[in-house]
């Protein structure tokens, strides 16, 4: 296996692009090589197989879509209330919108996990770890609500992000006078998160 970390990262990012655009069936080493602009056969020197590439895409996406530590630090200077949760959810939506390709690749990973038991196990583990981290973060930050609040917020935001990135017209005007996605983020938080 080749060990150039920069080349590996570029190939993984190329894999994200291919996965988001073509779906899992289009994710071939040849397509990754083409997307990365490297000679044919390069990806096969960096990954043991498609499952290895998918696992590395999963890891990379969690890094790409993670909160910016500086933004998070700035947000956490405010009171631990519903307003802060709203700001955190706006940041989540902004990150998903900014890296639409990354988020669509995550959705493709979900679909592929339904067909591949070995991927389902590792992907379930990484997504569950993210959810558990969110619950722990919520508790440690002293935000209103408990684990149930975080779980329902997770499900509602996942649905909003899915619709906004894939079929945004579905939500237009669904609640008269409520903007998409920002107004819906605020409605979700107001509905799910108890006041302090």
Characterization of the model:
The protein is an all-alpha fold and 196 residues long. It is 70% helix and 0% strand. The chain is built from nine helices and no strands.
Report the end-to-end length measured between terminal Cα atoms.
53 Å
Question: What is the SS-derived class?
Answer: mainly alpha
* Anisotropy-based shape: elongated
| Rounded radius of gyration (Å) | 18 Å
What is the secondary structure topology, with strand pairs?
Blueprint lengths: L4 H18 L6 H8 L13 H15 L4 H7 L6 H17 L1 H16 L1 H25 L5 H20 L15 H11 L4
Helix pairs in contact: 1-2, 1-3, 1-6, 3-6, 3-7, 5-6, 5-8, 5-9, 6-7, 7-8, 8-9
Index terms:
196 residues; mainly alpha; 9 helices; 70% helix; elongated
Concise synopsis of the structure shown:
This protein is 70% helix and 0% strand. It is built from nine helices and no strands. The mean pLDDT is 96.
């Amino acid at each position: 296996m080749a060990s150039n970390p920069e080349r590996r990262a570029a190939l993984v990012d190329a894999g994200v692009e291919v996965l988001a655009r073509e779906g899992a069936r289009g994710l071939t080493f040849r397509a990754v090589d083409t997307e990365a602009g490297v000679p044919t056969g390069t990806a096969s020197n960096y990954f043991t197989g498609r499952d290895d590439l998918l696992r590395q895409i999963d890891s990379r996406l969690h890094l790409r879509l993670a909160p910016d530590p500086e933004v998070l630090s700035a947000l956490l200077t405010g009171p631990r209330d519903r307003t802060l949760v709203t700001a955190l959810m706006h940041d989540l939506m902004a990150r998903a919108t900014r890296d639409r390709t990354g988020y669509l690749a995550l959705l493709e990973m979900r679909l592929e996990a339904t067909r591949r038991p070995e991927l389902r196990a590792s992907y379930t583990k990484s997504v569950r770890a993210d959810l558990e981290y969110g619950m722990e973060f919520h508790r440690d930050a002293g935000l209103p609500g408990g684990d149930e609040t975080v779980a329902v917020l997770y499900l509602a935001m996942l649905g909003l992000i899915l619709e906004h990135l894939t079929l945004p017209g579905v939500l237009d005007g669904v609640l008269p006078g409520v903007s998409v996605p920002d107004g819906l983020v605020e409605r979700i938080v107001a509905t799910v998160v108890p006041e302090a």
